[in-house]
Every structure is written in structure tokens, then in C-alpha cells.
């Protein structure tokens, strides 16, 4: 089976590697244009492009596939390339560009998407982040047939995994990427044999995973410690949860809800430091003192991510100070 692959970040690259290792013919890869990244803002190729070039797979990087969009000539060129490239199916994973109906209809067997949630829960751009932020106990991968709606197509395969209490978006991403890679290989083999069933998504239980904004990562300590722990894990590694202490933005990478110090926090205001030492770490009152959050890993501007005990050696925090957003 000949597979055109469309994807951009590491999540997609894992699936591309799995398809390549399984022996599928990949005549073309689509990925987003190179972007500036890093402190020097040098142009960087996507993870998908890097692997494709290593394997001598042709790569195209159109900025749009919409014939009625801002770049109709570029879109027309991309359509012509797809039509001129012999293939049976297109596999899409975190591509980042809208595929219009005109593109979806080109492959003989249509376009199949690898989506990082248990559809219909968390359709949209940030399903991994939102699952953790919302306290879901499980998530998974859905292989689906693409149509015009946002992640609304028939489900071809679905598998779930548990979300651990200490999972961050980074750790859960890696688990789901590996699962997606194995599932798409199995699904395409079933598709070759004509044994891949399709199930219409249920109408109940639909939720939307809105794109993550940097503004969301500013922690509001009027929330409960449990809600804050989820947000910190959801925004790790991007965009990185943070709070302000005496005018300095401090990134918070890991934390945990703690019990047994409610009496101490009952008169504290939200975000107030209850303790800051090597033994306790940094304890903060949350939700007007109704719960307590222990900060486990922090980072000051220009510094490294450090365990709380190490962080406190170079950044003084004293009881009574108040973290704000």
C-alpha cells in the first residue's frame, strides 16, 4: 500500500517512522514550512521533515491547501502534486493545516487521521493538554476517517490508556505517540485486507480541546491545589506554568497537592508561602487556604529547571510572600 503522510511535530514523526519500519511505500511527505526556533531563532525543519530527508522521502511544504484561501496558487500546486503522486491513502497526524474537501477526495481510500483522544471527547487542537487539565482518568488514540468536520469522522480503531497521577503532557504525549504508531500500522494492514470496520461517533460526550494559549499558563492560586497540579502538568513542557513572586516570573514545572497542613493555611491568602525549605519544599496556600500545593520543580528567568531544594539555594523564598498571576 502506498501512503502519503502529512504531519509536523514529533507525535507525527513517531507514526511516520512506524509506517516506514513496517514496509509501507511512502512516496511523499507533507509537513509545515520550516519555522524559526530556539534562542537564536534559526530556521528549523519539523521532526517529520527531518526523518523524511534521512530516508530520502520527497517532502512538500505548502503553506496552504485551500483553493479558496489566501494562497490559491500554492494550493493548486499542492493539489497537482498529490494527484501526480501515485498513492492509495493519506495518513494525517498533527499536520496543523486544514485539509479541504478537494484534498480529502484525492486519495483512493481517503484520508485517515491519528487523533490523541478517545473521540468524541476532546476533538480539536490540544487533546492531551485538556485531558490532563480536566482530570480525566484515561485517554487514548482514535484512528478515524477524515471528513470536513473537526474530528467528526467515523472511527476505525480506538484504544485507551490510563493517565497516571504524575503524567505531564510531555510524558503522556510520548505514550500516545507510540500507541498511535502501532495502531496506524495495524489499521492500514486491515484496510489492505478490507477488514477495517468504521463506527460513527456517538453524539453524546462531545468536547472540544481548544488550542493552548500562553496566557492560560499564568497560575491563579484562588483555584484548588488539585486543579493547579493538573494545570502545571498539562502545561509541561509547553507553554510552562508560571507565577509572579515580587515581580519575578517563576516557572513551575512540577507540584503536588498535600494534606495535613490545613490548620496552618486556614488564615492564609491564596498564593501565600507557608514554608520554603529543603525538607518541605515550597508550600503555598490555595483557594483562600482551603488546600495546599507543594512546588517540586521551579525555574527562574535565565536559569535551569531545579528541584525545590536546589532552587532555594539560589532564589530566596520566605514564608508570608505571595505568588500571584
Automatic annotation (TrEMBL):
It comes from Undibacterium parvum. It is an enzyme of class 2 (transferase). Residues 1-188 form the Formyl transferase N-terminal domain. Its EC number is 2.1.2.9. HAMAP family: Formyl_trans. It comes from the Bacteria. Attaches a formyl group to the free amino group of methionyl-tRNA(fMet). The formyl group appears to play a dual role in the initiator identity of N-formylmethionyl-tRNA by promoting its recognition by IF2 and preventing the misappropriation of this tRNA by the elongation apparatus. Keywords: Protein biosynthesis, Transferase. SUPFAM superfamilies: FMT C-terminal domain-like, Formyltransferase. The gene is fmt. This is Methionyl-tRNA formyltransferase. InterPro entries: Fmt, Formyl_trans_C, Formyl_trans_C_sf, Formyl_transf_N, Formyl_transf_N_sf, Formyl_transferase-like_C_sf, Met-tRNA-FMT_C, Met-tRNA-FMT_N. Belongs to the Fmt family. GO terms for molecular function: methionyl-tRNA formyltransferase activity. GO terms for cellular component: cytosol. Residues 211-315 form the Formyl transferase C-terminal domain.
